[in-house]
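Protocol step 6 of 9: fold each sequence in the batch and record its C-alpha cells directly after the sequence line. For illustration, a two-sequence batch is reproduced in full.

Sequence one:
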Amino acid sequence: MNKHKRDQIPQNPRKRKWINNHTKAKKKQEIDATANVIDNTANVIDKLPDDLLIAILSRMKILDAYRTSVLSRRWRYLWTLTNLKLEFNDRDITTDGHKIMTKDKLSFFISQVLRSHKSPSVDTLIIRIRIREKAERRGVFSSINTWINRVILKDLKRLELDLSVPGTSPCNYVFPDLGYLLVPFPRYKYYLIDSGCSVASCLRSANGFTSLRSIKLVDVSITDEVVGYFIESCLYIEDLCIRGSNATKDLKFVDPLPYFKVLEISDCCNIESLLISVENLVSCTYQGNVIGLPFKKVPKVSELTLGGVFCESFVYEPNKHSSYSTQLLKLVLNLHTASVLGEIVPRDLPQLYALKQLELSVVSRVGRSLLFLTSLIKASPQLQEFKIKINYIVPCCQPYDSLIRRHMPFPEVTAEEANVFEHENLKVIEMVGYCGCASEDEFIVSICKIAATSLETVIIDTDCDYYRDVPNYTQLLIMYKPREDGKVPIMKGVKTGRVDLIEPTENGNMNPLDAKKHAEKLISSFRSLEIKKIVR
C-alpha cells in the first residue's frame, strides 16, 4: 500500500529537522547562484562603454528606454543621447498597470521626452493621437505645435502625424506655417527682418526639416506653401503622404527629385490642380476629384491607386490615361463614388498590357450583377492576381431606391452581354466581403471559367459588417441581411429595431455562418483537384 505524501516524511524529529534544513540550504544555494549570475551579468553590462549602451538603447522602444533612467545615476541620462525611433500612439503606450494612457498623460510624456532628448538627430518621429472631443482640440493642437518646433532642431529623417478617428470628420488641425517654424531660430528671424529674404530661404539656411526623407500627414491640413518648402528643401525626400487636408489646393511635384519614389494625395476635398513630373516616381496614390491629367512625365510608375471621381475617369475614359496605364504592374481601384459615367458600358477598355496585380473595392447592391468587372480582367492579358472587395448598400425608403439604382459606380450587364474570353495567366482569385448572394456566385464561377487553364488558388473571405448593422429608417443607406437568391430582401426587424444576428432567419435570409457554409459548398463544386480552395 502506497503511503500518503505527508506520511512519507520520517516520524523521527531529528531526521525530519535535518531534511528541512537540507532543503532550505539547497534552495538558498540556488538563489545565491541565480543572484551571482545576475550580478555577473550586471557587472558585464556596467563594464560596457557608454557608446555601446546608447546603441543598445537606440534599438528599444521609447517607453522602455525611458524607464532605464531609474536604474542608476549612470543610466539616468543615457536614453537622452540615443538616436531613437520616437513613436507615440495613444492606443499602444501603457503604464505599469497595463492601462491606456490618457491624452493628458500622453501629451505630458511626449513633451518630457522631446524636452529631455539631447541627441542632435532623431531617426523617426511618429505621433498618432485620436481627438474625439472638440473641447480637447485646442490644448492638443497647441502641444503638437510645440512638439514640431522642438523636433525641427533635430536631424529628423521620418515624420508621421496621424490625427484620424475612424467614422468621424477631420479634426481640422493645421500644420504650422513657415513663419511659425522659424520661431526656434531667433538669429535667422532677425536676419529675415534685416536682409529682406523670404521665410523659406531663412528656414532653409537654418536647416529646418531639410533632412526629412519621409513625411506622412493624416487628417492634417497643410498649405501649399509648406508642401512646396518640403519638396524644394528636402533634397533626399523619398515618399510623401497627404491625406484629408482641407488647406491643400495646388500642388506641383517636378524634377529634380532624384530620390522621390512614393506619393499619396487622398481625400483633399479642396484640391484644384495637381502636376506630377518625376522620373524616378514608382508608386502613386490619388483619391479625389477630377483635376485634369496630373501625370505628365512618370516613366517608372508601376504601382497606382485611384479613388473618387478620378477613378471613374480612369475606367470609363481610358484614352485620357493611356500614356501611363500601359506600364502599370499593380493597380488598385476604389469604385465607391456614384457617377453618371457608370451608367453606360464603355466602348474602350483601359490599356493594362503589363498589369500583374489588380485590386478592386466596389460599392453595389445585393443581387446586382458584377460581370462588368470581368472586362478589366480582359484588358489585362498578363494579370496573375485578382482581388475584389464588395460593400453592399440599400436605400432606407422607396424614393431613394431609384436614385441609388441610377448612380452606381459601374454598369450592370447580364451573362449574355458579358464578354466571353479566355485568360491564360490568371492564377489567384480572392473575394472579400462575400455574403452568399447569387450575383457573387455567378461572378466567381464566371472568372473560374475564364481562367480555367491557369487558375491555382480561389479565396473567399466572408468577413463583413453587413450582418452586424441594425437597419434604421432614419439613415439614407443601411445594411441588411441579403437573400440567398439575390432578390430584394425582406427587411425583417427594421421597424422594431430588433434583428437576430446569430440564428438563421426565415424567408431565405442568411447569417454569417450560413454565408461561410454556402461559400464552402460553392468552392467544393469546382471539379479541378489542382485548384487550392480557401474559405475564411
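Sequence two, same batch, same settings:
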Amino acid sequence: MGGCFSDVRGGKQSVGVGLTGTTMSPIPTSNAAVNDAVDHFYRAQGFRQLFTPLECRNMIPKGRYILPNLDPALHKIKVTNVHISKSEDYLEMEDLRLNLTTGSCDPRKMEWSLSLSASRLRDRDILSKSDPMVVVYSKKRDGTLEELGRTEVIMNSLDPAWIKKITVAYHFEIVQPLIFHVYDVDTKYHNLPVEMLKLNDAEFLGEGSCVLSEIVTKQGQSLTLDLHNRNGNRGLKNLGKLTVHAEETVASRNAIEVKFCCSHLENKDLFSKSDPFLRISRIVENGGSVPICKTEVVDNNLNPIWRPLCLTMQQFVSKDNPLIIECFDFNSSGNHVLIGNLQKSVADLEKLHEQKTGANFILPSSAHHGHGKVLKGQLFVDHFSEKQLYSFIDYVSSGFELNFMVAVDFTASNGHPRDPDSLHYIDPSGRFNAYQQAIMEVGEVIQFYDSDRHFPAWGFGGVTNGAVSHCFNLNGSASGIEVEGVQGIMAAYASALNHVGLAGPTLFGPVINNAAESAGQSLSCNSRKYFVLLIITDGVLTDLQETKDALVRASDLPLSILIVGVGGADFKQMEILDADKGCRLESSTGRVATRDIVQFVPMREVHAGGQSVAQALLEELPGQFLTYIRSRDIKPSACSQLST
C-alpha cells in the first residue's frame, strides 16, 4: 500500500481511526484536493499512510493545508519549490519542502497556554508600586535559555494577574525546564512594545523555575513558585510568589464512533471474492472532497463487517456536512477497484442506525453528467454513538499514573564489569555507561508521572545464589522489588555488578511476564495506573517466540515496553517485536496482539542522529496509553472505574 508498509498485510490496516491509531486527515484552508505532501510527511514520521496510489493525485490546489489529528491543534504545511503548471487552479508537485508547526494533533506534542499571576512582589519604586512583567524561558540541554514570550506590563501592582498568555509546546518524551523572570519596567518605557524592551533597563524582581511536567500533571494544572534571586540564590527572602496555570489549547473534543457493514457487494475478482474497504471523504466548500479516514480491508467477503471508526469533529466539521463513502476492492498493486459510492452526512448515518435500514451504493456513470447505476449492495450502520476524546494530559492530571519498571541485561556478552571495554564498566570519572544513560534519560522523564517514585527493578541473565536467573531483584532483596527514585535504580544497578555473575542466555519472557503480572494485579484492583517497562539489553534474543507470546498476552493490559539496544549487536529481532510497520505480533497459538505495546531503539543509532534515548523511546508512549484507555472507554473523571 503505497510503500508505507513492508507487506500486503500491513497495507490492509485501517487509517485515520481515532481509537486505534493516529488520525491523518488533511483539511485545506482554501481550495481542496488530496495533498500528496500529507502522505510524504507521515511516511517520513513513521505514521500510517493515508493515501494509496489510487488515492494520490499529482495535482494539488493552491493554498495552505492543515493536518488535524485527535486533538484540535494543527500541523501547518507550506508547500514550496513547486513547478507551476499551465492550469490556473493547480500546482504540479515536483519537489516538496514541508514547513511544519507541530501542535496537539500529535498526542506527544500538545500546545499549552500559560497564565501567570504573582503575589507580594518586591516594591522597587519610590513614589509608586512596581510595574511588573514576566519573561518566560525554556532551558535547553546545554543550559542556555530560549525566550518563549513576555507578558504585558501591569502598572503599580505587587499582586498582578497578567492577561497575555504564554504558549509552550508540551513534549512528553523530554524534560522541559521553564524559567520565569519577573521585572519592574520603568515608566518611561511603557509606550514601547514589550518585545522591544531591553531587559538590562528593567529592574529584576525575582526568578522562579519548574519543569513543565510538574504543572500539567497537577490536579487543576496550577503551580505556585517561590521567587528568588538569579541562579537559585536565595540570599534575599520574601521576593514573592508566582503562580503558573496551564490550559491545553483545544477546540472541540466531540467525536462519533461508527461501525459499518455491507451486504451483497458486487464481486470485482475473477477467482475469489472482493477484498473490500471503505474510504470516507468530506466535501468542502468548492465541491471537492478530502479523505479523512479509511477502514481496514476485509479479505474475500461480499458482506463485510469492519471495526469501529472514530471520527472527530475536526474531521467531519458538522453533523450536516456531506461525506462521500466509497467502497473499494483492495489490490496489492495499489490499483483498487471502485465497487460503489454514496453520499451521506453524519446525521444521515445516525438515522440509518436508528431506523436499521441500509443505503444503496451507486456506481458512477462514465458520462460526465450521468447519475450512475444504483447497485444491489448496501451500506448499514451497525453502531453509532457520540463521545468525547480526552488527551493524555486529561488522564494524568486527573490522577492516572505511569509506573516505571526497569530490567537490566546481565548476560556475559556485555563483558566483565571491570574491563574498560565492558558495557557494564563503571567509569571512576563519573561518565555514565550505556545502561546508566538509558536509566537516567528515561527515568528522569517518567518519574514526574509516578507519585511515590518507587520503581520495580530487575536483572536477567545473571548468576545469583549460585544459579542463572532470568528475573531477579536488582536490589538483591529476596522479597522487595522496588527501589526509591531513579537514583535508587542507579545505586542498585551499581551494587549488583559487584555480586551478580554474568551468564546467559538472553531471555525476555520471564521479565515481561513479571511486569504483566503487576499490571494485571493493578487492573483487578481498579487502580489508576499504566505500567512502563524499560528493558536494556546488548544481545540477540534466545526466546523470540516465547517473548512474542508474552507480548501478545500483555497487549490486553495497561502496559508498554521500551527496549534499548546497547553495544554493536545485530538487533533485527528487536525490530520484529516493535510492530511499527503495521503488522501486529502473532503468538504461537495464532492469536494476534490487541495493540502494539513495544518501542525499540538502538542507542548507537539514536545518538548518531543527535537525539536523546528518551525522545526516541517515549515518542509512542502517549499514543499507546490512549489506545488502551480509549478502547475501554475510560474517562478521566471516572478513571477508577476500570473495565477489564
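Proceed to step 7 once all outputs are recorded. Observation for sequence two: The radius of gyration is 28 Å.
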